[in-house]
TrEMBL record:
The keyword Isomerase does not apply. Residues 395-556 form the Helicase C-terminal domain. Keywords: ATP-binding, Helicase, Hydrolase, Nucleotide-binding. GO terms for molecular function: ATP binding; helicase activity; hydrolase activity; RNA binding. Residues 103-270 form the Helicase ATP-binding domain. It comes from the Eukaryota. The gene is DHX37. This is Probable ATP-dependent RNA helicase DHX37. Residues 57-68 have a biased composition (Pro residues). GO terms for cellular component: nucleolus. It comes from Hipposideros armiger (Great Himalayan leaf-nosed bat).
Length: 893
């Protein structure tokens, strides 16, 4: 699969059209994105006319007017050879009876909205309707975007299977991998992938139809795509190469799309798919909401399992750790469903596994010698000497639980759990489901449970709309959801568990009525429910938008504020994004006075710089893109790419801070935590390398893992998340390709293995990181500032009044350097900086001039002629902006 992905990355690069083309397309569209409506903005009306002409008031209703009518749809019908079983299943789907209505609407209108309950067949069937109607003839493609990777992969597989076609024809592309070929006719992809394609080919000429699926989720990229596509559709119509846009939503709340005059001058028609939903009886808890909703879920599932007729159970919890804790508890309380007896095959497998494991251990030892010569082998070894396979088993157990693997097969400790009553009745087939779960394991929920067992899926809200699990009759809803919350001003993020919206709660309940009448147990009272928000807020209003703004500026959309967002981000968020991009050098800094004027009028219109354009080609956030753009020097590229890839892929280490359900588990967890801490120290090294801090840990972990062949065993033994390591490898490949295309003379190879950086390279890397994370600088509180105890060991950042601390999991936790940059601040019990690296104070005015205030030239030493620069330079004292931290004097022009 990995090889496949590499070639996918390459083929993506090959598909890139000529650069001039993109420019031309981008310019045209930028023109069209000028205010299309009178009064939207006081900007110059000039270039807007092409977009306006077609918006004649006399245009027919219900269709977005386009000047030339698209040529009539070719009267083709491409037969699909489905199996009788598939055909029978399809006919049960409500959407089948709407096929004609949908296809007529699509043929007569450039933009159509399709609404229907989850499970009505939108995602799997609409692409097939289009295929049969010839929308992929002439080698063009039917594109479908999904906000979640899981859905893009699962749906492409499902549709290929239904159509009896290979994945060479019905394919997917997600950030790290894909199986798209020349023959691909239906392409499922994440919304981010299509956004990148728009950068290369603004008119999306290889598509005849684009379907934006799950638009109700209102993911940021989905929103942007809808804004862009609303314009691309009219541009394509002008060229007589019509593009159809289908927006699909699971809820009827589509006003943000239909009632938005900046988006669609005429509201597009909405086709509603009546769902054949069975009634779901909703049961509220009488009691006030519980703190221990997880325990309440457990009791509810037990009750259902013991007392109610057959039918799958779907439990909604908020996070991975909770999901696992409940899965364990359930597995202990009920007999496991044994999928198949442990046959010889399995034993052979395990012998093979052990052999491989031993081999990988030997390789790891060698690797250690290669990458970290100053550390003794024992520190690095996968197993401490003397401890045998038992230990490994215990760990695998734990690890597997963390990765949600086959614990359902047999753990051998049925009912061993103290408080829980073992139940010998019906076996239960317990499966976890969450987005970080490995895809093969996710796919298990679609398979029927073993004979005679009841399926119980414990899920996060991924099961809310994008995936439909067959056979669910009971839903247990804790009513909560965990979301990352960003503070708009300070950028501090925290995970918050909050009540879901009414719409989400109803979606969850609906999962119980897919195949027969069902029941939904809400673990909260109806009074609480009536206080829920009606709908969840769109993502774009909840997170920083600098990555979007950079992408949009790269598409020559200068006046971002005029962009037809379905829901615009706040002006504050737009300003914060522009400011960051200006200080990174991605946007041209206006004169101070000019900027003040812009800000007063909220007219954000800084153009992109050459550096910004380069940064926009890297598929990572702007701060990281800046690091990549700087790292051509001193052979730092492979390391910077690795660090950036590792910072981009979240949660490199397996979550070990979860609460343990038993003493043994606690002991295992403690042991594993200690080992991970030790490995981190090993990877961070000492002296110069330790100064790169947690980013050195990332580099060391990836380096060591690659030397060990990136094996699951290696990851397992060292507390690394295997899936993350595979993603990092892929992203490194992709970033290397991106860097090579910007800078062919770099001639980088996609070679996962690398020598450790030299001491001076580590220093350069620290400087590169400082330049990228300049707005994340923190200074240790000086002893004279220590007003009270809460500031002990604390750091101060320019934007926060409260103390922040180095996270205990950081290798710099005890080092307490004077200046650091951090990847992010996460608020838990305190505000903690994660991903910390040390900064030398004298670098700040040199590397981060846009954050510094330079004072008058100093009298001493006097100005001097600099022969290299051919100019007179003088020393100036400087301070860090806003907070006025004194910095050393620097030589400036
Ligand atoms: O997109 P929408 O939620 O409207 O429905 P869908 O995803 O197209 O699913 C239609 C039906 O196919 C559902 O009833 C699912 O149970 C079924 N399906 C499945 O069994 N396995 C999959 N991997 C995907 C869908
Ligand atoms: Mg769907």
């Amino acid at each position: 699969a990995e090889e496949e992905s590499d070639s996918a990355v390459e083929s993506e690069a090959e598909e890139a059209p000529a650069a001039e083309w993109v420019e031309a397309g981008a310019r045209t569209v930028a023109a069209c994105l000028q205010p299309a409506l009178p009064g939207a903005e006081g900007g110059s009306p000039g270039p807007a006319s092409p977009a306006r002409t077609p918006t004649a008031p006399s245009a027919p209703p219900a269709a977005v007017p386009i000047p030339a009518r698209p040529p009539a749809k070719p009267a083709v019908f491409i037969p699909v050879n489905r199996s009788p079983e598939v055909q029978e299943e399809r006919l049960k789907l409500p959407i089948l009876s709407e096929e004609q209505v949908i296809m007529e609407a699509v043929s007569e209108n450039p933009i159509v909205i399709v609404c229907g309950e989850t499970g009505s067949g939108k995602t799997t069937q609409v692409p097939q309707f289009l295929y049969e109607a010839g929308y992929s003839s002439d080698n063009s493609i039917i594109g479908v975007t999904e906000p979640r990777r899981v859905a893009a992969v699962a749906m492409s597989q499902r549709v290929a299977k239904e159509m009896n076609m290979s994945q060479r024809v019905v394919s997917y592309q997600i950030r790290y991998e894909g199986n798209v070929t020349e023959q691909t006719r239906i392409k499922f992809m994440t919304d981010g992938v299509l956004l990148k394609e728009i950068q290369k080919d603004f008119l999306l000429l290889k598509y005849k139809v684009v379907i934006i699926d799950e638009a109700h989720e209102r993911s940021v990229y989905t929103d942007i795509l809808i804004g862009l596509l609303s314009r691309i559709v009219s541009l394509r119509a002008k060229r007589l190469l019509p593009l159809k846009l289908i927006i699909m939503s699971a809820t009827l709340r589509v006003e943000d799309f239909t009632q938005n005059q900046r988006l669609f001058t005429q509201p597009p028609p909405v086709v509603k798919v009546e769902s054949r939903q069975f009634p779901v009886t909703v049961h509220f808890n009488k009691r006030t909401p519980l703190e221990d909703y997880s325990g309440e879920c457990f009791r509810k599932v037990c009750k259902i399992h013991r007392m109610l007729p057959a039918g799958g159970i779907l439990v909604f919890l908020t996070g991975q750790a909770e999901v696992h804790a409940l899965c364990r508890r359930l597995r202990r309380a009920f007999p496991h469903a044994r999928a198949r007896p442990p046959e010889e095959e399995d034993q052979k497998d395990s012998v093979e596994e052990t052999r491989k494991f031993k081999k990988s251990r030997a390789r790891a030892r060698k690797a250690q010698a290669a990458i970290l010569p100053h550390i003794s082998l024992d520190n690095y070894s996968v197993l401490p000497a003397g401890e045998g396979d038992e230990d490994r088993e215990a760990e695998m157990d734990d690890e597997e639980a963390a990765l949600g693997s086959d614990l359902d097969l047999d753990l051998g400790d049925d009912g061993a759990d103290g408080g829980e009553q073992p139940d010998a009745s019906l076996p239960m087939h317990v499966l976890p489901l969450y987005s970080l779960l490995a895809p093969e394991k996710q796919a298990k929920v679609f398979q029927p449970p073993p004979e005679g067992a009841r399926l119980c899926v414990v899920a996060t809200n991924v099961a809310e709309t994008s995936l439909t699990i067959p056979g669910i009759k009971y839903v247990v809803d804790c009513g909560k959801v965990k979301k990352r919350h960003y503070d708009r001003v300070t950028g501090v993020s925290s995970f918050r568990v909050t009540w879901v919206s009414q719409a989400s709660a109803d979606q969850r309940a609906g999962r119980a009525g897919r195949t027969e009448p069902g029941h939904c147990y809400r673990l909260y009272s109806s009074a609480v429910f009536s206080d829920f928000d009606q709908f969840p807020p769109p993502e774009i209003t909840r997170r920083p938008v600098e990555d979007l703004i950079l992408q949009m500026k790269a598409l020559n959309i200068e006046k971002v504020i005029n962009f037809p967002f379905p829901t615009p981000p706040s002006v504050e968020a737009l300003i914060a994004a522009e400011e960051l991009l200006i200080s990174l050098g991605a946007l041209q800094a206006p004169q101070k006075a000019e900027r003040m004027k812009q800000l007063q009028k909220s007219r954000l219109s800084c153009p992109i710089t050459a550096l910004g354009k380069t940064m926009a080609t890297f598929p990572v956030a702007p701060r990281y893109a800046k690091m990549l753009a700087l790292s051509r020097q001193h052979g730092c590229l492979p390391y910077a790419i690795t660090i950036v890839a590792a910072m981009t892929v979240r949660e490199l280490f397996v979550e070990l801070d979860r609460p343990a359900s038993s003493d043994e588990e606690l002991a295992t967890l403690k042991g594993r935590r200690a080992r991970v801490a030790q490995m981190k120290r090993t990877w961070a090294g000492r002296g110069a390398s330790l100064k790169l801090g947690d980013l050195m840990v990332l580099l060391g972990a990836v380096g060591a893992c690659e030397y060990a062949g990136c094996s699951p065993q290696f990851c397992e033994a060292n507390g690394l998340r295997y899936k993350a390591m595979v993603e990092i490898r892929r992203l490194r490949g992709q970033l290397t390709t991106a860097v090579n295309s910007v800078c062919p003379e770099a001639g980088l190879f996609v070679d996962p293995k690398m020598q450790p950086p030299s001491e001076s390279q580590v220093t350069y890397l620290r400087q590169i990181v400082t330049a990228g994370l300049g707005d994340h600088l923190a200074r240790r509180v000086q002893s004279e500032d220590l007003l009270d105890d809460k500031w002990r060991n604390a750091y101060k950042t320019p934007l926060l009044d409260d103390p922040v601390f180095i996270h205990p999991s950081s290798v710099l936790f005890k080092e307490l350097p004077d200046f650091v940059v951090y990847q992010e601040i996460v608020e838990t019990t305190k505000m903690y900086m994660k991903g910390v690296s040390t900064v030398e104070v004298q670098w700040i005015p040199v590397l981060l001039p846009s954050y510094c205030q330079f004072d008058k030239p100093l009298e001493e030493p006097p100005p001097a002629y600099c022969p290299e620069k051919g100019r007179v330079l003088c020393h100036r004292a400087s301070t860090f902006y806003r907070v006025g931290w004194p910095l050393p004097a620097v030589l400036v022009d």
